[in-house]
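Appendix B, Record 12. Input sequence as logged:
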Amino acid sequence: LEIDFDAYLANETPYMTTKQIHDLVDRDFFIGSHSLDHADFQSLSPVEQIHQAVESTRIITEQFGLPYQVFSCPFHNDHLSQDFFSAILDAGIQLSFGIDGTLEDDIPYSLQRFNMESSGGFSAERLLATYFAVRIIRRFLGKEKLLRPSRKTVP
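Logged structural output:
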């Protein structure tokens, strides 16, 4: 499968422009970073994970003059250690998002979002109903918490 991304991007605009993002910020929308290159964090060293989060958030915060710092991890973040979250908090990131649905994170400033992109054709209403049904079942089974892996040494 050969795709000419440059030709595609010359004709299509799948991403928001800087002006469009500034317009959102001006209308009181909150924005945050999503890593430098959308890497799968599981394949990165702990040092590179922290660099991806902190540097991408610094760039977005400076570019748009944000008074807050928010990071949303690409893909799942359930494998990220407590040290990762301590490091990004120390760097000024105040809120982080993962994509583990209805699980309650044991990191208080890490919230889990729903994956609406791989919906299997279901409506948002049906997906949310399913997520909340799963949450009720998990709570009944005592498995509603996302427990982070034990600390890993980060230089």
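Residues 46-64 form the longest helix (19 residues).
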